[in-house]
Amino acid sequence: MYQLFIANKNYSSWSLRVWLLMKEMCIPFEEKMITFEGGDSWKKFSSFSPSGKLPCLKDNNLLIWDSLSITEYLAEKISLIWPMNRSARAWARSISAEMHSDFEFFNSKSLSCATEVNTPVIPDNLSKAVTRIDDLVQEGLGNFGGPFLAGEKFTAADAFYSPTIIKINNYNLSVSTETNQYFNKILALPNLKEWIGQAIQEPWKVSEYEEMEKDIGRIIRDKRGQG
Hints:
Structural class: alpha+beta
Shape: globular
Helix content: 40-55%
Order of helices and strands: EHEHEEHHHEHHHHHE
CATH class of the largest domain: Mainly Alpha
Number of helices: 10
């Protein structure tokens, strides 16, 4: 069985991408959580991840690190990870790579499933990122028929955008009606609801990631400790 090494569910957007993909694809794995707490996380993570970052997948004696690399490794064995249609598959790979290498505003912040933030002044780079994501969602739904980004089935593209969907929702940012409907579909996935629920119940708080939310705006709700 695969072993998937992940970090805190409340903070680690990159861990969520692979975790959700494997859950939605019904790929059995043993979850290994290594938290950010206790000092130098790179030193701690590098004891089992060559890059010192998470997620990292272990397949017997083989290690695969980086979310995009793990996705492609799994896709060699499971065809449904990417769309079957060639055009949809090329597009899904492109937007996943764009999320992986771009969208610095979102990827530089913690996931923070537990907090809702009021953003009275929206930075220009955040506004541009949300507009781009809104455009991509509408493009995918229009070209491939929905209800998921690249067609009728959940694929890696949806997994790669799932953390950003959580953030846009928790920042209370506006998107088009079509995009909002897609966001709600992803947020309603039982596996994603499971991740968020477990994230909210985590007892750990890391000041570095907590401060990131305060840089965006005023925290208006913290769901932790609500039972």
